[in-house]
Amino acid sequence: MCPRCRRTNRCVRPELSSTRARPISEQVGSAVSFDGRVALITGGSQGLGYATAALLKEKGASGLLLVGRDQAKGEAAAASLTGDGCRAVFVPVDLADPDGPERCVAAADETFGTLHATVNCAAATFRGSVWNSTAAMWDEMMALSVRAACLVAQESAKLMVRETVDGSIVLIGSVARHGGAPNLLPYSASKMALVAATRNMAFTLMRHRVRVNMLNPGWMDTPAEDITQRRYEGATDGWLERAEAVQPMGKLIKPDEIAHTIVHLCSPESGFLTGQDIDWDQTILGVAAEPRPGPELGELPPELRA
Fold first, then answer.
1. Helix and strand element counts for the chain (H, E)
2. Across the strands, what pairs with 215?
3. Domain covering 33-218+254-280 assigned CATH 3.40.50.720 in the classification
4. If residue 63 lies in a helix (H) or strand (E), which one and from where to where?
5. pLDDT tens digits along 88-116
6. Could you tell me where the DSSP H helices lie in 222-272?
7. Does residue 101 contact residue 118 with C-beta atoms inside 8 Å?
8. Which one in 13, 75, 205, 225 has a CA-CA gap of 20 to 30 Å to 290?
9. H/E run at residue 41
10. Does the structure show a pLDDT above 90 at 278?
11. pTM of the model
């Protein structure tokens, strides 16, 4: 029986009893490590979620719970991450369902008995502006990108506090939270809502040693972005190469690059950093050659023209 948690069959962290008792300042200063820890990643079967899960495994994770809607893709991702001391499990959950967040965290509890980090990568990415956003679009966006993210964080925090671990929750936002392009109205609003949620939860959970931070990627090269560009922007083959050619760094953000920052936030190496929303982009907010909308953005939709 574990002398600290009084469990006989599900304690996966015997080496963490001494770590929990040490001040966070004493845990900082070595290379980023996630040794023997367990993480839950929503949207974990592809793109940024999968890249984060893969790096967590590389850094020593003993358990990974991937959450998504595509069972075949999710099970393949979990199989590819299992081995070398890491067990990865996929749980098919639609987080837009009201009980989805509770079910995925319950699965982590049942499978691993503890949780040290949660990374919320699941989000809706469809387009809508002040001219054409519908009630259904707003409901879907808020259900997945805000409600689900907050409820996953809420249930994760309960498990972390119950297990008395130094926990970390990372919400994936977007630089669009500063306002976004005209056709990103519901999306931008949902990401700004996460800023307030991040700070509120971080303040509430601080005394329980559970940290909450938000990372805001810029334009990122993911499978979901390819679908979005083709579906909503009319992009054709070669769009990525054309887009990258005009970027300051010569490319879009790659998931495995930003995953390093996420894993840092998940690990003790990030100390007591909490309540922060961090932009991860190749532009500088407030500095632009065209600070005002171009004339094309002033055009009314056909039905509103005189």
1. 11, 7
2. 172, 278
3. yes
4. strand 63-68
5. 999 999 999 999 999 999 999 999 999 99
6. 223-232, 239-245, 255-266
7. no
8. 225
9. strand 38-42
10. yes
11. 0.84
From CA 116, how far away is CA 264, in angstroms rounded?
A: 13
- Give 84-95 as a DSSP string: TTBEEEEEE--T
Note the maximum CA span of the chain. 77
32 CB-contact burial (10 Å; exposed 0-12 / middle 13-18 / buried 19+) = middle
Domain residue limits, the chain: 33-218+254-280, 223-252
Of the chain, the percentage scoring pLDDT greater than 90 comes to 64
- The lowest-confidence range among 63-67, 117-121, 230-234 is 230-234
DSSP state of 300: P
Q: For residues 301 and 131, give the distance between their C-alpha atoms in angstroms, rounded to a whole number.
A: 7
Token duo for residue 303: 């039905």
Distance in Å from the first CA to the final CA of the chain: 77
**Dihedral (CA of 217, 219, 223, 225) sign:** positive
Bridge partners, 40 (sequence order): 65, 118
Read off the pLDDT band of 49 (50, 70, 90): very high
